[in-house]
Amino acid sequence: MKRALIVIDVQESFRALPSWERIANPKIADPVDRLVRLARAEGDQVIWVLHTEPGSGGVFDPEQGRIRLLEELERPAPGEPVLHKTAHNAFTTTRLQQLLTEAGVHELVVCGIRTEQCVETTARVGSDLGYGVVFVTDATTTHPIGALSAEAIVERTEAVLRDRFARIATVAELEAESGASTA
User: 1: closest CA among 121, 147, 104?
Assistant: First the structure.
């Protein structure tokens, strides 16, 4: 089965938000980089997705200069697409599905910022489109919303996705399954 790693919204825009101070994992680049190295070692496609809100004047407006991967994150390799989206999921406003179809991809590994928002929504849409989805929880992060802690949000996301929309996995589990070295 051909796979693709979809890295969603691991971008400087989030670091510019006041809520970044409460993000559950400010070192999100570390587990994401491990997944990127694993995907490359396995010959999987890596696709980078960045959220944009053109004309908004906010941190997601391309005119503000923050629509770029987190500085400490692995850089895209030649041939790895970088898509810009304006919707919560990575499919609706990009050519993601076309790229996946052309590459013969049947399984998605998803990770990124806002566990319950763009990453979860991409997992759900991907599942609805017929892809097998692996949701790598420890390679996602979010921040508290209202009375819900980041941990409670992650727990809820895992519960609603598990066995219906996605297989829930950790980076270490995927590394162990592959046997590939990502160090």
Answer: 104
